[in-house]
């Protein structure tokens, strides 16, 4: 059985982007009200008094867009100060990163994943939902954020690419080439129909193996390792400084390797990304005065039944279900 010691924490459900595969413009998303979010004090209490005691030692801050959360630098500094914290990382769209990179790094964040679906401003805008009147591309700010993170010293620095057929799949080789001269880790993610089944009609995703074959044909491809690779299968172009990861939830279920749980910004603990069973509402429990020891027992119980939930997911043989929450709401 996998040790489950990794918690993905959504700091906020809102975002400054409207990615077509996550929270498309016009989608009927209900945002949380401020009072529904876990406060900093509640979140830190849950980490310190509930998650760490039951064995969680690695934390990833995500969202929505985590850099929109006021006080994010202080939150990181506090989580890093807990002696049991072995690892803290963040997934961001990078738009607000350039001016914050140094402070985040000094607060103790050393690993960062930045989403970058395209190297072309117009394609980037189309994916991130900046159409119509919003002509100015946000690509430049994101690229500056990536360079700032690189110069500050983030290592590993990972770039997440969701590959969408007919939209950015022609850029796969250009994105892979970023790993040749720099110690960057580009990870190709198969699009998942989470919260946006409509985009999935026909075949909305591209097999990782198809992408690997394109790269193999161009440069060759060998197996590799990178720290904190999680569900990714990792390779590299021979002689390259960085690596290429493939997250293939659609074509190759990796449920049996799952080592994580997710905490939403409103305090729901979710044992499986693709499956809504078993969730617990930690915020309501906390606010109604349930003791940390009792919450530890509830989380422990969820850890015990997690393999069964993963197993059911695997046995269902499909990831094409109906999902009520988008990645931005779950904390992807
Ligand atoms: N806003 C941040 C960002 O975009 O990096 C963090 C949150 S976002 C939900 C985390 C990751 O989930 C991003 O790399 C994004 O590309 C990915 N993602 C979102 N929706 C997805 C989907 N339907 N299928 C696959 N990946 C998705
Ligand atoms: Fe925002 Fe990230 Fe979702 Fe894009 S993928 S809409 S940046 S939360």
Topology (elements, then pairings):
Elements: E1 6-10, H1 40-51, E2 58-62, H2 72-81, E3 87-92, H3 101-107, E4 111-115, H4 121-128, H5 139-152, E5 157-163, H6 172-181, E6 184-190, H7 208-219, E7 222-223, E8 233-236, E9 243-247, E10 260-263, E11 268-270, E12 280-281, H8 282-287, H9 292-316, H10 327-330
Parallel strand pairs: 1-2, 1-10, 2-3, 3-4, 4-5, 5-6, 6-9
Antiparallel strand pairs: 7-8, 8-9, 10-11, 11-12
Helix pairs in contact: 1-9, 2-3
The chain binds S-adenosylmethionine and iron/sulfur cluster (SF4).
Residues 15, 17-19, 22-23, 63-65, 93, 115, 327-328 line the site of iron/sulfur cluster.
Q: Could you give me the name of the CATH homologous superfamily?
A: Aldolase class I
Order of helices and strands: EHEHEHEHHEHEHEEEEEEHHH
CATH fold category name? TIM Barrel
What radius of gyration results from the CA coordinates?
19 Å
CATH architecture: Alpha-Beta Barrel
Mean pLDDT: 88
Total domain count: 1
Instruction: Give the % helix.
Output: 25-40%
> How many runs of DSSP E, i.e. beta strands?
12
Strand content: 15-25%
- Distinct bound molecules: S-adenosylmethionine, iron/sulfur cluster
Which strand order does the major sheet show?
A: 7-8-9-6-5-4-3-2-1-10-11-12
- Unreliable residue stretches: none
In one word, what is the shape? globular
Pairing-aware structural class of the strands and helices? Answer: alpha/beta
Main β sheet profile: 12 strands, mixed
Q: Characterize the quaternary organization of these chains.
A: single chain
């Amino acid at each position: 059985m996998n040790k489950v010691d990794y918690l993905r924490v959504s700091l906020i459900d809102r975002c400054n982007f409207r990615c077509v595969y996550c929270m498309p413009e016009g989608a009927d998303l209900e945002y949380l009200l401020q009072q529904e979010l876990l406060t900093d004090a509640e979140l830190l209490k849950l980490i310190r008094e509930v998650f760490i005691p039951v064995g969680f030692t690695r934390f990833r801050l995500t969202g929505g867009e985590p850099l929109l959360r006021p006080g994010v630098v202080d939150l990181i500094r506090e989580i890093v100060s807990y002696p049991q914290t072995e690892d803290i990382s963040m997934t961001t769209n990078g738009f607000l990163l350039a001016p914050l990179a140094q402070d985040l790094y000094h607060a103790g964040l050393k690993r960062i994943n930045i989403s970058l679906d395209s190297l072309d401003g117009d394609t980037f805008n189309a994916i991130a939902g900046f159409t119509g009147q919003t002509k100015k591309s946000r690509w430049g700010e994101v690229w500056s954020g990536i360079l700032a993170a690189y110069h500050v010293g983030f290592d590993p620095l990972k770039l997440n690419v969701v590959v969408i057929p007919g939209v950015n799949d022609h850029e796969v080789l250009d994105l892979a080439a970023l790993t040749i001269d720099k110690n960057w880790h580009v990870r190709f993610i198969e699009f998942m129909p989470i919260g946006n089944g409509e985009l999935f009609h026909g075949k909305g995703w591209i097999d990782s193996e198809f992408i690997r074959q394109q790269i193999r044909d161009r440069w060759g491809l060998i197996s590799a390792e990178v720290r904190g690779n999680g569900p990714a299968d990792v390779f590299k172009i021979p002689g390259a400084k960085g690596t290429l990861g493939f997250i293939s939830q659609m074509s190759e279920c990796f449920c049996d390797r799952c080592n994580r749980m997710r905490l939403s910004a409103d305090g729901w603990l979710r044992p499986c990304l693709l499956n809504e069973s078993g969730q617990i509402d930690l915020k309501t429990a906390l606010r109604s005065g349930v003791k940390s020891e009792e919450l530890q027992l509830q989380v422990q119980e969820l850890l015990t039944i997690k393999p069964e939930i993963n197993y059911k997911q695997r046995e269902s043989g499909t990831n094409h279900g109906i999902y009520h929450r988008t990645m931005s709401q779950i904390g992807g």
